[in-house]
Amino acid sequence: MTADPAWFADRARLEDGNWLFATYVFETEREPREAAADLCREQSTAQWARPGVTEDFRPRHGAKVVALRTLRSSPAPLHPSPFDGPGPFATAEVVVALPAGNFGANFGMLLTTLLGEGTFFTPGIATIRLTDLQVPDAYANRFPGPQFGVEGLRASFGVKARPFLFGVVKPNVGLDPASFAALAEAAWRGGLDACKDDEQLADAVWSPLAERARLCGEARRRAEAETGEKKIYVSNITDEIARLRPHHDAALAGGANTLMLNALPLGLPAARYVREWARVPLLAHFDMVASVSRAPGFGVESAVLTLLQRMAGFDIILFPGLGARMRSTEAEVRANIEACRRPLGTLRAALPVPGGSSVPGDLAGIRALV
Amino acid sequence: MTADPAWFADRARLEDGNWLFATYVFETEREPREAAADLCREQSTAQWARPGVTEDFRPRHGAKVVALRTLRSSPAPLHPSPFDGPGPFATAEVVVALPAGNFGANFGMLLTTLLGEGTFFTPGIATIRLTDLQVPDAYANRFPGPQFGVEGLRASFGVKARPFLFGVVKPNVGLDPASFAALAEAAWRGGLDACKDDEQLADAVWSPLAERARLCGEARRRAEAETGEKKIYVSNITDEIARLRPHHDAALAGGANTLMLNALPLGLPAARYVREWARVPLLAHFDMVASVSRAPGFGVESAVLTLLQRMAGFDIILFPGLGARMRSTEAEVRANIEACRRPLGTLRAALPVPGGSSVPGDLAGIRALV
Q1: Do B108 and A356 lie within an 8 Å CB cutoff?
Q2: Residue B361 pLDDT more than 90?
Q3: Interface pTM (ipTM) of the complex?
């Protein structure tokens, strides 16, 4: 069986702004061209031919292979499973052109296309990883992107020719709001630009978001008066949809001037919803990113999720940083930084924050990269 | 170094309705008790001790190891990475008691605790999978759960002592609404109970949701008149937050009587938000579930996500079904069915739908399981 040419196209002919280009690396026991063609079918028109009907939706709606190369062959897949055949397995890299008209500028449908049933259940594909996503300007411009961006953040907070210094207030769970604000105040006075809630702390009975924001607001203004610098309090408003707006209002009324969302647990549609009315910068935490990105060769590269978070409207994006603890290679950190900064229609650049268990000794290495 | 006993507890003492029990299987080069204790710390109070302060938040806020057993030892981890040491690696199963007061009845914060930075970046833990979640009744009751449930679905649609027959209209992408409705009508007349939109089809320029629902509603009523049976049209309303309610209203005005959401791409908070005002049953599609569940030994068991979808309010939950194509073991399918049905406070049971590429010949096997 040879792969049907209807699933293949010249990339140059699809550079009209209506196609996204997704790069996957997959392992298959099949001929890679056939497996790649089936991947395109599963990610778009699934089954296109009806008996006795001559319609063919593939020219307009079919995903297309625009590049394919076999990287290596191996006797077993990277992650053997009971459903694999005897092998050998070819590892191939494919660039798939996805027609934007299939899913629209809608995160739920975009994620369904990129990482849905079609992607993970293509016959004969044992493991698959989405490694890059190239978004045409016309499509990117249908998303809000950062409201402030790096330049807006620097202007708002007066941090000009140096990195922002972010810190998280710890202990993260259990501190009463007054103790929390006292620690934040000490950190601001000690030189930090931004104190943030931990990702495991949002609105809690023992630390209500509004009260914490009010006390942190007072502490922030005292620290600003003493140091003569603007300071940032990042409040984590992650919650049910109906509570996001009240939390935004309460946090700002108290004294937060940046808001954090645990982006994937909340969902990218909800993040974009907050962006529509948020009056301050938004910071994304990387919870759950590891659950889809950390198994080698499987799932999705964290930088793709960073790119989507930028499209959703985050001004500041945290991702796993350098070092054995965060289990991220320098290449992965670089790709995340690039996803924050690459040209993307009229969307602003987001501030990249390689994070997680950083200590002062890590700063030189981070600075060299960023 | 021995593990601090503050991270261990008798489960019987935590059965007061305020603790969730999460089971993880992990691989570590460390002594499993120490690694399990650090996992609890990362999932709760992270860093609890401040120099010169005697507070200890662990009794109230610390996660606790309530069971631990070593399953095996191996020279290399299941998914080797550049960050592993020389081994050997112990594989251990741990049951972690999580204090509900830390995160509240809030999906974003619950997912952050279960699958966030803490879980995947515990020092010395190479791979980790969340395999089960036991939720106390008092906590479950803070979520809506299914509005109709299995009994409500049977009463609403008159399907009494037999399985529901669900089918998806194909071709999935590209059909105009009239052709789509004609195919649905033929399927209803042919004996299907439910015709649904494909997960890759929602509101599209070439098939507007409102028009498709209107034509499918007319077709449904004709099929009902001819067969004397109630028929179900499932409209996929996955979209940005602000469009969910208009889509709900338009779909119902047209003739949809069940709504589908691509649950993970949309986000569980958004699904729960729809449940608050939806007037018809909700069906969850399993897009993205494979991206966190299909790598062996890594991520999360799909049944845990099914359980969370039930808590969010889905009446009907699709998950990868039997057979090599869906790469799901019978044990995984059984666990998903059990997650739909297990006692869960006052929450109704959801209808389990093992799906994905099923053909008529699969029905006997599915029926034997369900």
Answers
A1: no
A2: no
A3: 0.96
